[in-house]
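FAQ: What does a ligand-bound record look like?

Like this one, built around zinc ion:
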Amino acid sequence: MISALLLTVYTQGQKRKNNREETPKEQLAIAPKLVVGIVVDQMRYDYLTRFWGQYGEDGFKRLVGEGFNAKNHHYNYAPTSTGPGHASVYTGTTPATHGIIGNNWFDKVTGQSVYCAGDDTQVSVGSDSDVGKMSPHRLLVTTITDELRLHTQKRGKVIGIALKDRGAILPAGHAANAAYWFEGDAVGNWVSSSYYMEDLPQWAKDFNSSRQVDAYKKQWNTLRPIGNYAESGMDANTYEGKFKGETNSAFPHEIPQLWDANGGYEILKTTPYGNSLTLDFALAAMEGEGLGKDIITDFLAISFSSTDYVGHFFGVNSKEVQDTYIRLDLELARLLSTLDEKVGEGEYTIFLTADHAALDVPAYLADSKIPAGYLDMKGIGEKFGEFLQYRFGTTDVVRSQSNSQLFLDHTILTNLDIDIPEAQEAIARELLNYPGIGRTYTAHQMWTTDFSRGVPYILQNGYNQKRSGDVLIVPDPAYVASGRTGSTHGSAQIYDTHVPLLLFGKGIRQGSTVNRTEIPDIAPTMASLLGIAFPNGTTGKPIGEALDFN
Ligand SMILES: [Zn+2]
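The answer part, i.e. the structure of the complex:
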């Protein structure tokens, strides 16, 4: 009797224990065999909704339908450009902390313009040119991919791939196995840097020598009849750029005939074929490196750059952008079906986001009676020069400008016995007199005020004390300093900050949210899922509602 009772108690205890072990609620971490981070360069959130009816079932619709859609996901800093974007997605923080304050910026120490991924101490691998003199050395903190390398005792592999070097290098982080990018011009090869390796692996050499790339030297016409593309503007219009040698910007684009005048393989970047080529190479890397083949999590960081080149060239409302996204949808379907087959359905996790969004062509907006326009940089420069001369006795007090920030010469100001914050404020006030400039802020304000919302919050997150400038300029919404055709980005405005975030696969709950989430939230969300340390500069927080355990 007693022993029977004990047995019952024991059995119940065992059952509870077994149940506990079986309930996913108590898991500390999910370990997919592979994480695929996807950045779509210049993807606006509304490309999901605007082109929804044109997408198939197996690409964007599968990610949204089976995954988690953060509908109100934003960049929380400016400048919204590619280098800072990729760095922020993978570090879980902003330029204030990770230090990538632009694609290029004026370096206060050397007085030179520097490139975010440039590194003269390295040499190219797989190329005779300088395209491989790159590394992540200007990135000041760790990435989620670095933390995965540390957590797995370097057994989890990390590979970054993009047409753009910065789109491959910054996501892959400091401790990556490799990053690869594309050399256009007359070459058409995937290359790397001595930072990662001495020689390309055999699978990469094989890919290059296969000349698979040449299959894309073909006409670019719309995938479907152009009459079905009701979600974009007229095909031939004055808001689009033209390839050299074209008389108008309408489809079809005769790529082989335009080849030589437009930089050879370089032209592929400004067609959807650049994205297809990127996926071809990424799948070759997966196969060649055996990614996702064992229980130790690997990480493949892919960035699709052609969406950005096409957007800059033709504008966000163009038939070309629509066609590029319809084709990208098919490439996502190809990626998902390959992952199902090679890694296994339910064995991998994906996030998809963008490095920034973009503005409609201001000339088109203005023609549509919406406030928009172009800054008269020449006029502003002349008037501003006169002001500096009058106020400070010399124009030399301004050393340089980059990313809508002015860098002042502190030595000259000190020699003139002018207080630095006073000079910053005088210049900030003067600039407000110029048409198209909506707001200005000073570095002194960035140092002394803790902003919590709106444009100044966004500027402050992008402001790095050691690297950023003295005066921060914010143009009016939809006012830009670039040319009259195509779209651009870089501002603190919502059209540049609102991007998609789709999470999918192992450890991800099906659902959506309209609560605001921010780009630095992605890395801690993935770190929570993987049960690894947060990147060491993390300022974002995990999106708990997207996770299927905790
Ligand atoms: Zn861009």
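Follow-up question: can I read anything off the structure? Yes, for example: The radius of gyration is 25 Å.
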